[in-house]
Design goal:
This protein is mostly helical. Helix content is 41%, strand content 0%.
């Protein structure tokens, strides 16, 4: 077990994206905060666009983008971008798996 290579779960790109999303979520919660209405005094600011539209929208986008930042896998540098989903390159012949051709020879 001593010679196993450590591979991090998240790349540097993932961590930067998650940090930006966290800032976006916190900014949305800050925009939603403010003085509440009390029994003695009504505060009309609780119905402002900043508190009921902009703040929740920023927080929601932050949560959505956080899910994307966690799932995102950056491409390796120098990887062949011509590979398709099955891993077959454009110029590489396809191999038929499971199909056997019998060659008949006449003796």
């Amino acid at each position: 077990m001593g010679n196993q290579k450590y591979t991090p779960i998240f790349s540097r790109t993932n961590i930067i994206m998650m940090a930006c999303c966290l800032v976006l979520i916190i900014l949305g919660f800050i925009l939603m905060s403010g003085a509440p209405s009390t029994i003695d005094q009504f505060n009309p600011d609780i119905f402002s666009v900043r508190r009921i539209v902009v703040g929740p929208t920023l927080s929601f986008l932050g949560f959505l983008l956080m899910a994307f930042a966690i799932i995102y896998t950056p491409r390796k540098r120098g990887a062949d971008t011509r590979d398709n989903i099955n891993g077959i390159k454009e110029n590489e012949p396809a191999v038929n798996i499971g199909i056997k051709e019998e060659v008949k020879t006449d003796k």
